[in-house]
Amino acid sequence: MNGSEEEKLSSSSESEGEYDADAEEAEGESGSEPENPEDRVYAMAPTVNIQDESAVDVESCPAFVYLNELFYEGKIPGTRLAELKAKYVLLHDTLVSLQESEIQLLQDAKRFSVKLEEQQQELEKAEEFPEGATSEVSKLRQQYLRYFNEYNAIQEREFEIQYRLTSLLEDKKLIEKDYRRIPKASDADKRIKALRDSCEDLRKETTQRRLEIKNLKDDLFIRHKRLTKEHKELEELFRKQEELKDELVRLQAIPIQLGKDMEKISRRMQDIEKKKIALREEAQELVDTSKKLETKCTETTMEKEDTIKEVEGKKALLESKEREFNTQTKVHEMNKENEGTAISERGQLEMSFRNVSNLKQKLHDNLSRMQREKEKDLRTFKKMEMQLKIAQESLIQVQARHERMRLEIDSVPKEDGAILERRRELQREVEIAKRNLTQEKASTESEVRLLEQCIAEEEQVVGAQEHYREELNNLIRMTQLKADEREQKSKDFLKAQVRKLPTGI
């Protein structure tokens, strides 16, 4: 056992020595050989020069300066200025925190890149280890590498947790800042009270300014009225001045106008003399024409007398024609009156004819209805006759049956009580049949009487229809006779008027 353990230890020491020698040779070769261009290239963390925003004074930044200038110029109110400054401070703080986190991430990236290079070198060394070596050192090495990998994973998780913690802390700081910026209830009440006081002061000031504006408007209106009045007076003065100027010009032009008027009058006198001579000549001509007109007047008077005589003859003829026309108009009016009476009588006759036709239609309807009822009664009568025949036949059968039963009873000895009972039943049946027969006879008799009554009413209706038809024919004949008589009278009257006309003319 001891010998075997010693052999194992010696073999392991020899293998370790060989491994160390091989590693030294590999390092020497890598150090002596130049760099290969095909070697692997690893990512390096960039070096960025970022301005440290935390060292910058926020109050002296250009944004704050520009906002203050706008506020002093009156372009933005104080509340808007405070709001914008608070937003800018918040953004500046977030920028600072982002820059810090970015720097931290860059440093972590640089550190991780260095670690990655170291691990890559270790992996390369592990790949150079002989494949067949399965010593205890290699096992320990593998176990070490596994634990190392687990440790790295734990560190990564811890870094991630730390990063989340820092981000949460930053969010907490931002929330606390926002909470500190929120005004408290007492401050808000004070601000509200101050704002209300300022609003009340502004309201009072506005009312005072409105009163001042109203007073100024009244003064302005009074001044405007005064100015308009003065302007009108000034215009009146200017108008009077213009009138005086016109009057002066007119007075200056009077002598010249008088000379012109004298010349016009002299020319007019000359024209009048010429016209006077012409008028004398025209008067002489008029005297000659008047003599000629006198001769013509005498001729016209003679013609007038002749025409008067002719007019008187025409007037007499016209009067005779007017009388003839009057007689003709009277005849025409009488004819119109006769025609109106004839039309009225014709209307009355038409009305009576319509009434008679309506009555005829009603009678016809009643007749048709009664005929239908008659047919219905005839059908019922026939039906009742059939029933009567059937009843008579049944009566004959009952009588025959009765005779047959009587014969049977006579043939049977009289001492039997059942036969007597049977006989009584048969007698009761016979009595019932007789009673039914009498009832049927009574009903048939009543129906026969009703049918006879209907036939009598139908005959009356037919007689009334004939009577009304005769009356209608008589009325038509009478209207025709009256119309012929009126026409004959009108003709005779016209003939008489025509006979009278020549004697009157």
From TrEMBL:
The organism's superkingdom is given as Eukaryota
The Gene Ontology CC terms held by the record are: cytoskeleton
Q: Which residues form a coiled coil?
A: 185-324, 353-489
- Would I find Coiled coil among this entry's keywords? yes
Q: Where is this region: Disordered?
A: 1-43
Q: Does the keyword Coiled coil apply?
A: yes
Annotated Acidic residues bias: 15-36
Write out the transmembrane intervals.
none
Keywords, comma-separated and alphabetical = Coiled coil
- Under which name does UniProt file this protein? Coiled-coil domain-containing protein 146-like
